[in-house]
Amino acid sequence: MKAVLIKNANIVNEGKIFKGDVLINDGRITEVSETISMKTADTKIIDADGSYLLPGMIDDQVHFREPGLTHKANIETESKAAVAGGITSFIEMPNTVPQATTIDLLEEKFEIASKTSWANYSFMFGGTNNNLEEILKVDPKKVAGLKLFLGSSTGNMLVDDPKILEEIFSKTNLLISAHCEDEETIKQNLEKYKAEYGEDISIEMHPKIRSEEACYISSSRAIKLAQKTGARLHVFHVSTEKETHLFSNKKPLAEKKITAEVCVHHLWFTDEDYKSKGTKIKWNPAVKTQKDKDGLLKALLDDRIDVIATDHAPHTLEEKNNNYLNAPSGGPLVQHALVALLELYHQGKISLEKIVEKTAHNPAILFQIKERGFIREGYKADLVLVDLNSPWNVKKENILYKCGWSPFDGKIFKSRVTHTLVNGIVVYENSKFPNKSNPERLTFNR
């Protein structure tokens, strides 16, 4: 493997920004210093010329749709879009077809990724009301964790039996990641709006149907169960200001038993955007109010919320263009997540150091990912160079998702990803993919 030397970078790492060079050999960072001389004649030199070098994003929640839903996306297409967006590792969800609710089905997904992924990968194992025996077989050193749908599930993945849920929480030593929305509350809200509007419900009713109350009831119930059983709980895509008060910043992340994630779309959009974006920003949980958006950012900055993810969940435009009741929830985000966060930096809302903390350092700490998430000597060289002053326009011609669209269509971003390295290989460079990646299955220090 060819050595790589990154020169003249503004390195953003562990709460600091400093000018320096980074040397990579055999896929690992071997030296970080103010100045490094070229070691061999065939070393690849990347002159950062003052661009910012970040550890690659670790996205802890994506839906890449393979197997079974590959008309929307697949591991190859979406991981390629991810590395173009600065994401070097991802954790994918179990609600594919078939669902990854047995060890054999989970390993089939790992096998697909080993052959086609552009980024490092892991997968969540899916919990159901009747697969505890399989859950207990999962090796926590080789699998990211257990995903439980406590609302908004597909297939048979809604875990709604309280006795089973408590048994899972009590017996598993896996990190439990949960989608928290109360189905009964949502059902009641939906019936109310159907009685008023029939089948012609507006997309603007989405945050009222999948309401603050539905989120809070479910999140608080899951947290109480985790506290009762001692389970390690991670609450996915917190979407309301009210929920943020369920989480604490009194302990360092490595010591927390209950943690939280916020997604890019909940930091970017509000219910005012339904007028122009329609079902393209229909997600579960729903995008809610400006108050919620502001509260999520505040909780992120004061460390009640621990990580930022995408919940990348593509659908075709044909599917999304249905009316409210028939349009699926979810949208593509991995290619544009980092540049959207950098836009918040340009607006003075978040620092570069905090972006790196929440997208790279903290996912590595939270999931106990081995040798990734930091720019450290000896660590895997998963790195991203960004130019903070190179505007570009999101348009169909440069969208890499298989579905071919983005909720950021037409947006001009001030920053762009210029280079992405996965395990020391330059897989993305100035809008091209010069080398095939050598991605690895993530392993965990547990």
From TrEMBL:
Gene3D superfamilies: Metal-dependent hydrolases, Urease, subunit C, domain 1
Enzyme Commission number(s): 3.5.2.3
Keywords: Hydrolase, Metal-binding
Single annotated GO MF: metal ion binding
Residue ranges occupied by any Amidohydrolase-related domain in the UniProt entry: 52-425
Entry keyword Metal-binding: yes
Domain of life: Bacteria
GO cellular component annotations of the record: cytoplasm
Keyword match Calcium: no
Entry cofactors: Zn(2+)
GO BP annotations, alphabetical order: purine nucleobase catabolic process
InterPro entries assigned: Amidohydro-rel, DHOase/Allantoinase_Hydrolase, Dihydroorotase_CS, Metal-dep_hydrolase_composite, Metal_Hydrolase
Family statement drawn from the similarity comment of this UniProt entry: Belongs to the metallo-dependent hydrolases superfamily. DHOase family. Class I DHOase subfamily.
NCBIfam families found in the cross-reference section: PRK09236.1, pyrC_multi
Protein's job: Catalyzes the reversible cyclization of carbamoyl aspartate to dihydroorotate.
Protein name listed in UniProt: Dihydroorotase
